[in-house]
Amino acid sequence: MDLFWDATKWQPACDFHHNVVKQQLEHLFDRGAIAEADLWLNSARAIAISRRERSATGADGWPTDR
């Protein structure tokens, strides 16, 4: 919870990155699977998640068949 309230760690995000990418990053962090530095949306981990998840949704935001 300390990371959440540390304003130096805040970053703006669109709905997709807030609701999809950050959720996955925070889940991985809580499990101890990634480091704090990986929580940034410009980290290699975040970029990989973004690319994977974006390919699974169409322009309208609905899931597509892969």
Give structural attributes.
globular; mainly alpha; 66 residues
Main sheet record: none
Give the overall shape, derived from the CA principal axes.
globular
> What percentage of residues falls in helices of 4 or more residues?
40-55%
What are the segments in which pLDDT stays under 50 over at least 5 consecutive residues?
none
Number of strand segments: 0
Mean pLDDT: 85
Strand content: under 5%
Helix and strand content put the structural class at mainly alpha
**What's the Cα radius of gyration?**
13 Å
The rounded distance between the terminal residues' Cα atoms is 36 Å
Elements, N to C (H/E) = HHH
The number of helical runs is 3
Q: What's this entry about, in short?
A:
The protein has helices at 2-5, 15-30, 44-54.
Structure write-up:
With 66 residues, the chain is an all-alpha fold. It has a domain at 13-54. 47% of the residues lie in helices and 0% in strands. Helix 2 (15-30) crosses helix 3 (44-54). The radius of gyration is 13 Å and the shape is globular.
